[in-house]
Protein 1
Amino acid sequence: MNKRTRLVILLAVLAICFVFLWPSISWYANTPKEVQALALGSTENIKDYATVQAAEDVRNFKALVASTPDAELPAEYSWVSKEAAKEYKLAGKKAPSPMTVKDAVKAFDSEAAFMDIFQSRYRDSILKAKKRYENSVKLGLDLSGGMNIIVRADLDAALESQGDTVATENADAFKKEAMANALENLTSRIDRFGLTSPVVRQQGEDRIYIEIPGAAQADAINTLIMGKGVLNFRLTDMDATTAFNTYYAQHPATTFNAAGELMDPSIIPEDCEVMGEYTKDEYGLDERTGYVVVKKEIALDGQHVKSADVRNDEFSSQLQVCFTLDTEGAEIFAAFTGDHVGEYLAIVSDNKIKSNARIQSAITGGQVALTGAFSVDEANNIKKVLQTAWLNVPLSVESQQVIGASLGDEAIHQGIMAILLGLGLILVFMLVFYKSSGINAVVAQILNLYIMFAVLSAFNYTLTLSSIAGMILTIGMAVDANVIVFERIKEELRAGKSRKAAIAAGFDNAFWAIMDSNITTFIAAIFLSQLGTGAIQGFAVSLAIGVCSSVFTALFVSRLIFDFSSDVMKTKKVSIGWGIK
């Protein structure tokens, strides 16, 4: 392979690494702390923030229109002028020039459309930052601080609570379903709590591992984990819902305050309240699709639900969500549905409306079927909501470790100092012992770290203290390859060979020695990464990446630097050690 091809390959590798590394650079260096806090929240929290901020901006803009309607748009609203110009163009009109604040508002059909451009601006900015975080190197608990919790689910107790309703041969299937439901509930609760990128996964048969980065209060988290979702059925006031949605479409910026409360409670009946109607988005998170006005009085409590399932209607083949009530619940539901035939009944879970179905007839016997044009995902989501009430899985916290953010900052500082100090001492040694050739080792080591961080960023790995330890070890191993090559070159120079011949022979003779040692280390690292867990796995992954990058920099990059000096700089001698001429 000629030098030009090797140079092109090196530049391509560096460019690709920069692309992989850019999200991490953008997130940690260019993203403000307040934007990071918002981006790390749930999708629902981002949407609520964007809505509240947009509503405030629209109110301020309307006040500006009321006071100075013919004033030109201020500099901070220059982007509004561009959006208004687009609206004028879509309407087949010419945009006014210069554009006044009144002209900007007139470009939009309604206040809701005007508010949408502000909301989109906030939303897109935060979601863009969130995407950068998802593609960047994450910091583990030992670096960022947070909580590490192991929760035990008492599946035997959950089985006993069902009595004789679950056959012995179905016990394993019941436990599996109960465990899946417990995981679903915990994930939903923790994400709703506004925590940053929580990790919730099953560990073994009946354990749940929870990892919550960032500052968190232990008491609040324990309450969240041990708590039980509130499920109930409420009557929907459809007339009030229609009136409210009409009002909200006309006054989106002045309907709710920053706390999400109605600014004018008189727009709905006194015995009602407004709740958001939610479905699961493509990320599996709750997404609000609208608002529904429901009665404050609870028609039926979710504790009366005994089982839930998804079936196909035998006549229409449409999906149905079927659930069974206990004896008391069946009596209550029969009387209630008989009195409200033709009206709508909402399923409320944690103050979120998950279904709003019409009561077609009095439902007796405790067997209830929800029908509609459900997709498979929608039907299963409603089933999970109903299961929240009847799959009562007792949870207990087995272990809990809280790591303060100050400890994380100290660990990051110590890790960075260890890397810089180790790298600095090694490079000083290489420059002193191998003179000008030590510069090759300096460049190789810097590129080695650069490539390692790029690979970590490309695969979205989490950086922990053990990962940093693997990097520090890699630095020492990487310079070892340079030492082997340099010593081989020195032997060839002592034998009387020219610079070019000595360099070529030195790399050729050192190749398999370097490859053998690094291949064995790589094999060990791979086995550790597959069989180990936690800190061991983090150490092994960073070591495996470091082995590959160090081989590339020692054999490929260092050789290219030597050849460049020989062919381009026309250097005749090799400055590679004391007593070597």
Protein 2
Amino acid sequence: MRIVTILVAAVLLVGCRPSEDPHARLVLANGRIVTVDSLMPQAEALAVIGDTIAAIGSAGEIAEYVGDNTRVIDLGGALAIPGFIEGHGHFMGVGQAKMILDLTVAQTWDDIVAMVGEAAAGTEPGEWITGRGWHQEKWTAVPDGSVDGVPTHHTLSAASPDNPVFLRHASGHAAFANAEAMRKAGVSPETPNPSGGEIIRDARGQLTGLFRESAADLIGAALEKAREAMTPEELDAERREQARLAIQECLENGITSFHDAGASFETIDFFKSLADEGALPVRLYVMVLTSNADLAQNMAAYRMVGYGANRLTVRSIKRSIDGALGSHGAWLLEPYADMPSSSGLNTVPPDEVARAAELSLEHGYQVSIHAIGDRANREVLDIFERAYATVDEPRNLRWRIEHSQHLNVDDIPRFGELGVIASMQGVHATSDGPWVPVRLGEARAREAYVFQDLWQTGAVVTNGTDAPVEDISPIASFYSTVSRRLVDGSVFFEGQRLTREQALVSYTLNNAYAAFEEDLKGSLTPGKLADITVLSKDIMTIPEDEIPSTEVVYTIVGGDVLYERE
């Protein structure tokens, strides 16, 4: 891969636009170009001048743009589409996931214990061991003595007696800690549940090691305290490595823009410094995640649109009203089928969410609320509806519900009626599909991941992966969206599949619309930014089962080829 050398050279060209030369600096020729533009749905070639698309059309029409200094890429019939836009992910988390234990590969709890034991053998006593990606529903077996389907900490504590261990659930909405981590955090069987969280105990009232939602912050605070010993230089080097790894993951997967679903003001300062240095090749649309008090104090100063040659936009806030279905944290109207004692967790009180919406109206921010359970989605729709009644053009707000996973049938039409964006992730449907009926029961499972039903209401449906919760690959999520096929070959509620055309729009133009950027990106249209992804196979026409084997050949951002497959 030539990705590193290409990045250094190409980013310096961002925004350069020849004033006189009518020739293109890049031409894509001899391909099948699917534009996602109804005025010219398909073409053979396109030309790039500066960082925008100058023309699109037949090979003969584009030939006149070729000059002595034009780079011409012969696509050889390959498919070119608008650059994939990740509609909901966690940018720094993508990089961080590459620097800690990858628990997604674990088949059993014993696998995780072995991974931690191996890490402890090579780690100084007292140093933290962290990981992410475990999911009890994806294990081949659950050990005897488990509580709520999750083992107790004892074998993990024995494998790492001298190192605190903190392992995030794949969803990010629960975590597991060993005895040393709980000791460091000062958590005991008598520690009360924090607001919006739950410390899981066994029948004797003893700690199991599992922490749901905000309870995980008790362990996280101890980890952060340990990190205070790091120097500013060490912290800066760490986050730069996280950003580098995230950028590499994006470009290798054909992602040209990324909706970062939750960053602090401090992280936004870091993004801005990267943009100033010309070191932010992937375009970021950032949602601010912080308290209402912090929002009120800072959001006016941090709002920015198209900063650094359209590399950084901050104009949305993110709050989470519930947790995740996999960790029994999604807030439901009725109890869980497999845990009748619980209807999930309300992580942020509705009045706080409503106040965040008020602040967003005052400062011109979009509202993006994480809601997974049917109760959570109803509460957010109610908050939005009340806020919409106070403005003249509510559809111009483009407020979003992040995930929109499990909906009561009565609430589905409200997305289209109100103009609420359903910010969804196709890959969640097939990743979660095998165990969703266990959580919800067969009848309610039909109301989960209803992509086509929401589309038919007239709502804007977007797509993504929630990386690092799932693999960042748009190809995998596109395939899940159009096939709904589970690992056992069955199809998860076939009627909710999107067509390939719908799925492509959800990953390009709809994501651009959800960021107020449809005039800049999302389709291959003259005048728009030259953000383009070239694929090895035509995902719009090949047999469905061939889609997962498709690879990214080129990732082009602003006319710069930032990744090419070798």
Protein 3
Amino acid sequence: MPTMPTMRLRVICAAWPALAAAGPGWAQTEAPATVLDPVVVTAERLRQSSFDAPAAISAVTREVLESGGPQVNLSEALNRVPGITVLNRQNYAQDLQLSIRGFGSRSTFGIRGVRLIVDGIPATMPDGQGQASSIALSSAGRIEVLRGPMAQLYGNAAGGVVQVFTEDDAAQPTATVSASAGPYGQNKLGVKFSTSTPGYGLTLDASRYKTDGYRDHSAAERGQFNGRWQSDLTRDTHVSVVVNALDQPGTQDPLGLTRSQWEANPQQVVPLAISQDSRKTVRQEQIGSVIEHRLSPDTSFTGRLYLGERSLFNALSIPPGPQLSPTSSGGIVKFERRYGGLAAQVSHRVALRDGLALRLTGGIEYDRMRENRQGFINDGGAQGDLKRDERNTVENRDAFAQASLDVHPQWTLTGGLRTINVRFRTQDHFIATDNPDDSGSLSYHGANPVLGVTWRAAPELNVYMNAGRGFETPTFNELAYRNSGTGLNTDLRASTSNHLELGAKWKLGTAQRLDAALFAINTRDEILVDINSGGRSTFKNAERTERRGLELSHVAQLTDSLRSTLSLTALRARFENGNRLPGTPERSAFAELAWSPKAAWGGFHAGAELVHTGALYVHDDNRDAAPAATVFNLRAGLAQDLAGWRFTQLVRVDNVGDRRYAGSVIVNDGNSRFFEPALPRQWLLALTANHAF
């Protein structure tokens, strides 16, 4: 396991007792429990307060989602969470760039290195690739972000876990209509219905978002539906059924820009994107069910089953010439994918003397994905001759066990192990002269052990230390291409990482809370972008990388109406040769001051935000970087209640200083089109009206 710098650990450990003794005197007022200590379930797969969870975990509430923007992108809300970077590329054809502690920053599209779960159902495929675009934020009630060793017990994900939960069902039948608008043709319309009775609940949510795009050739449209039905079948059995759908037609891809292009005109588009009409159409439907059954007062069973379909049409920006090569896969990607899985988990609690307990959890998971993938010539945006035809299958068979033992009223030991088995198979149905049969298979096997200790040093201070091993396989897209030759990239190895984390959670009286985490991660065979050109990427393994970091977050209810939030992340992510890991900021910060006067007319509330993102290096050789950027955002809102109706209005102004900066970068782009411009100053107006029947 890696070791933290000895001097740093001694300073932190020596400081905590003194700080704890001084802390209670700082308290100002009583704070709502949901602000300082929300309930979470991700850390140990059971309901517990975030203060008691023995890991670095943060929760984002519904209030934050509603005030953060149009509720379209995770970047609106997760920028306040330390340790996670969510970069909005202003390119809906490529999704967000999401990374935790630097894992996932290599992604050119989709989410890698981070596990996504929605209402207990995986939003990450068995190979480790996920999509954030399918998450319906307009009906999300809570988002949890788990970082560090404990995340390794969730499987094929090295960085962490992002888990989204649909909001609680309304206490009585309630209908909501929402609308928002902003510059560049942005608008969103949504309808939602929610109701519940004892033992029964239903939430239905549908929305449609459209934008002309800030840049040329970047228009997008996204329709979403999310529905959850839940019921207590018996006193001991609870079941939920979740249905969601995504419809994203004809989303234009403007590609990245070179530095000179970005500095000259950030709204321009590469001519090749126009001539080849680079774009993407995605449709996805999924249904899943989770059942929870109490076998006895101390034993419970949880099971899940889900099925889904996803189709894609993706016109890439590859020039016509290279597509004519006998081994080329063309410039249009099409697939029809079916996926599903099941899991079973049993949890048991053994009561010990003096109120101590042993908590045991074990389970198995099986997930499978099968797709029919084809490639065609992209003839000026039109589909041409067939160039690729294959059937791909990937499946995982995992098992896990976790135990938590109270050895003393102040001390708890936690241990766990997850075994990971992932198998890839491809059947090639396009065999021609100079294009051989590329059928084949690959298997990856790993084991993730985790060990931790928690010390409840005082009622207002918890200290924990965790160590664990992570395992991350390549995704099918990362295996699909070689720099030369055809067939799966069988030279690409799974990466392994050793994690060590020391953290503390401190309540300063009843109105303030401070969380801190120091971590060290050593990784072997990290998967990196090798060549990225024309919308297609090849990948390679790095020999060794290391990460050293510090995460801090502070929340305070300063007065009855004034609340502050501060989060800071320092991350030193380096290759063995000393170069920085591209796409990963080494400094990031978020600060917010929110004002909600209790006696204000019309439910007035306001807030000011500062968001800082450090420099983003664009290439493994650190040849260039997107400069660090600090932006300021302002918001204000009103709320009125009238005859069973509730009306709300929100106005936001983001990037108040009109700062020109690159919001994200395309790592190792073969054409040096690394830069993706962020939006200049922009405004948002959001309105809602809901009625309780």
